[in-house]
Amino acid sequence: MTATIGIQDAPPLRLIDRVNPVTKLAAAMLVTTPLLFTVDWVSAATALVIEVLLFTLAGVRLGMLVRRAWPILLAAPIAGISMLLYGRPSGEEYWSFWLARITDGSIELAIAVTIRVLAIGLPAVLLFLRVDPTELADGLAQVWRLPSRFVLGALAGARLVGLFIEDWHAMALSRRARGIGDTGALRRFATMAFALLVLAIRRGSKLATAMEARGFGSDRTRTWARESTVGGSDWALIAIALAVAAAALGAAVWAGTFHPVWA
Fold it and tell me: What is the pTM of this model?
């Protein structure tokens, strides 16, 4: 069985599709990690604008962006609203009710947090539009030299995600066929979730036993059927990620809004 993380029928994403999956992971970390050290809207807005421009040039369309990143698009304003109401008050106060206060400081913090969630979340989502779990495991083991036992265990877990989704749909259809799946949505969800948990534990135990019997837990050096390498496209993506991070922090320092999280 093969599985791909992402939209299989999406159009080619020129540069992104040519790089190693571990390079995508490294690029996402290089872009987002510096943004965690400051809380200001300039750095986040700069990074977000550059990211949207780069992904547009790479072939990411608006519909694809919404389908893949809708949890981030939903979480960003929620985080902003919480900062708007309960952020550190400073400056002029516009509204207050019990613990909630809207001030100049909370408004600025809400804008910064909203944009920052988007700037941090979008690269991680869009860089992994299409990633084959096997290619990612090959890269983790051969390029990053991670322990094979950890890599293969993670690969097996990723392969089972698709099966769990199919099991959920199968259980829903079977319950509806027996006439017990049309009412009580909360109760139906709880019982199906418990059944899926039991099934996952049983399948995981069987898979662990089968992998151990086939020598996947051995301490001997493993060989790999597919060679995982990095090339010019990988280094280009790393350079772009570093440039985005540097531009974001540089813009914040130049604008005088750089505000370390520990300050």
Answer: 0.74
